Amino acid sequence: MNHKAFTVDEANELIPHLESVLGGLRDCVRRVEQHHEKLQLLDLLWAERVREPSNPDHGEFAKLQAGMRGAAHQIEDLVQKEIAGRGVRFPSGGLEQGLLDFPTTWQGRWVYLCWKSGEKRITAWHEIDGGFAGRQPLTADQSRRMGREDDPALIDDSMLDF
After folding, report:
1. In what order do the strands lie in the sheet with 99-106?
2. Domain tally, the chain
3. Which domain holds residue 27?
4. Would you state the torsion angle of the CA atoms of residues 103, 18, 73, 43, taken in this order, to the nearest 10 degrees?
């Protein structure tokens, strides 16, 4: 499978949209957490009996479960369509930390342009296995050349993890 190699300019153009997507994801996560807390309270009060249709809190229980499922589906949908569907990588811990990686090429290999929510533009990159801790400052030369000089079809993309 050939992946798109982002240029720094292409990645920067997506930042406002992705910042909005991450905001929507955080809202969904808050909804899941709120529903989960209320479900835990109902579980403390009623245990398995809350599942019985005759239980006075069964309607609330069913509504909270449906709300959690809906928010979880929305999270999955946003990630698949608005992040992964655009060729952007959502690394482990990405939601909590607001991290996204843009695959690009540099000197004959795949690397990631690394962006953190709140940053106005791409200022760092890291090796495929380097993660956020391996971030390196993006130089002006790299900014001009990354994703432009190598043919992605000729670079082994088996290490890309999405």
Report:
1. 99-106, 109-116, 124-127, 136-137
2. 1
3. 14-86
4. 110
